[in-house]
Amino acid sequence: MITDDDTFQGCKKLVHVDLVEEAVLRNTINALLLEEWKNDMKDKVDAIDQILPTAPAGDWFRDDAGGEAQAVRMWIRSVLRKIIHYKAQHQNLLNEAASTLQHTLPNDIVLNNICPFLNLPSY
Q1: Which of left, alpha, beta for 110 (phi over 0: left; psi -120 to 50: alpha)?
Q2: How far apart are the first and last CA of the chain?
Q3: 88 phi and psi angles, rounded to 5 deg
Q4: Residue 106 pLDDT more than 70?
Q5: pLDDT of residue 63
Q6: Closest C-alpha to 79, from 25, 16, 2
Q7: pLDDT for residue 78
Q8: For residue 64, what are the β-bridge partners?
Q9: Which stretches of 4-108 are assigned E, i.e. beta strand?
Q10: What crossing angle do the helices spanning 22-31 and 35-46 adopt, rounded to 10°?
Q11: Which of 1-15, 18-32, 97-111 is modeled with the greatest confidence?
């Protein structure tokens, strides 16, 4: 975790951040129900590549921490907030669909065969 504002102080060439467990996040994004959500999340994840080149790097000699660490922290919060929101929306839609299906199909078929197929990957 990035805890200090001077973490990237003086890093003038910091233009990209690799996510730990990016594959898990991408799998979760790809499993979202709506294409709009998928596109929004992909844009959120990729936004850091547009943010970092314009964030000030700071300078050790002038005791200027710069803004890169803060930009990365804000980006991480933004991505987490958005994926949590979409996962909750996804689950709400699944619950509604499962409820509808339970009225027409036997409960065990819905719970054992349909719901597990539609659930998001856990991480």
Answers
A1: alpha
A2: 18
A3: -65, -45
A4: yes
A5: 58
A6: 25
A7: 92
A8: 59
A9: none
A10: 160
A11: 18-32
pTM over 0.85: no
Structure tokens at 103: 């009225």
Residue 70, Cα to own-chain centre: how many angstroms? 17
User: Does residue 81 have a pLDDT over 90?
Assistant: yes
Q: Which residue has the tokens 């200090």?
A: 4
Structure tokens of 18? 């690799």
pLDDT of residue 65: 56
Q: Which residue has the tokens 């799998």?
A: 27
In angstroms, how far is CA 74 from the centroid of its own chain?
A: 12
- Give the pLDDT confidence score for residue 41 in this predicted structure: 94
Q: What is the per-residue DSSP string for 16-62?
A: --PPTTHHHHHHHHHH-S-HHHHHHHHHHHHTHHHHGGGS---BTTT
Alpha carbon distance 84, 9 (integer Å): 31
The b/e string for 7-25 (b: 16+ C-beta within 10 A; e otherwise) is bbbeeeebeebeeeeeeeb
In this prediction, residues 23-48 reach a mean pLDDT of: 90
Interhelix angle 22-31/68-104, rounded to 10 degrees, is 40
Q: φ, ψ for residue 64 (rounded to 5)?
A: -105, 110
Query: Would you state the pLDDT for residue 39?
Result: 95
